Amino acid sequence: VKTGVLISGRGSNMSALIEAARHEAFPAEVALVLSDKPAAAGLAAARAAGIDAAGLDARGFAGKPAFEAAMTAALAAAEVELVCLAGFMRILSPAFVTRWRGRILNIHPSLLPDLRGLDTHERALMEGRAEHGCTVHFVTADLDAGPIVAQARVPVLPGDDAARLAARVLAEEHRIYPQALAAVAEAVRAARP
Ligand code: GRF
Question: Using CA positions, which residue lies closest to atom 6 of ligand 1?
Answer without folding.
Answer: 87
